[in-house]
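Changelog excerpt

This revision adds worked examples to the README so contributors can see how folded entries look when concatenated. The first example is reproduced verbatim below.
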Amino acid sequence: MTEPNLDLPLTNLLADHAPQPWPALLRLPTVLSAYEERVATLREYGEADGITLRAASEGAFLNFIKSNAYTRQASLVLLDNGNLRAVWKSDDGSHVGVQFRGGQAASYVIFKRRDHGAETSRVAGKDTLDGVRGQIRAFGLEQLMSG
């Protein structure tokens, strides 16, 4: 094992020498900060357009990100109903979209490109956030959201 360079910040040392999933977890505060800035911007734009961001939607979104250590940043939009919708996309056309309706309630859409061919599996529905996590696992898309 190589000796760590003690001149580097602690975060770098931990990320360089810790087993997975620690590097992803170390990115989580940066991702959360970026999301908080985006939510503040969406709140401001929404208010200018007469749309109030629902606190229950915001809380559900932030809890979803924190509880799963989803560190790949999603596109985040404010819908006309005041809910947040996050979308993660890959270069191959796979896609996860989740509308946070508050509490554990969510609407989702998942597109998964098959490995060998042009076929894309699609599923959409309403479920709990735990159910959405299960769908993400079932489609093998955790990496899409975790970077």
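The second example, added in the same revision:
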Amino acid sequence: MDDGKSWTVVDLPVVHDPRGNLTFVEGGRQVPFDIARVYYLYDVPSGSERAGHAHKVLSQLIVAASGSFSLHLDDGRVQESIFLNRSHKGVLIGPMVWRVINNFSSGGVCLVMASTVYDESDYFRDHATFRKAAVAKWAALGIPVP
């Protein structure tokens, strides 16, 4: 990842065609992992939030396949909100990043490509527990946490 963050915004390839554009993602190319699971969030009611968790080892690429939404990220040191509204832009998220997804537009579709299959033991579902683990991770690397 760049700028010392645990995530980065990526530009995905676009094949321009007068019949409609095509964007693709290949494991090991646009993402630094083999894609083990793909899922998507859709028909999210107005005002609802999704995610609200972090992963211990899983990495993900998140793309607004249609419409838009906001992605709020926190790795225990850095926090950032990213608005996604282009199907050829994504956010590559490493392990140990708390994420919340909200502000879905009507018809918004959040496409997620994950490095591992679903494993409940990989989740932090309590922010305080995540924060403690994140601070310990950064301390073990000798990086101060504000």
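Reviewer comment on example two: The chain has a mean pLDDT of 95. The two ends are 20 Å apart (CA to CA).
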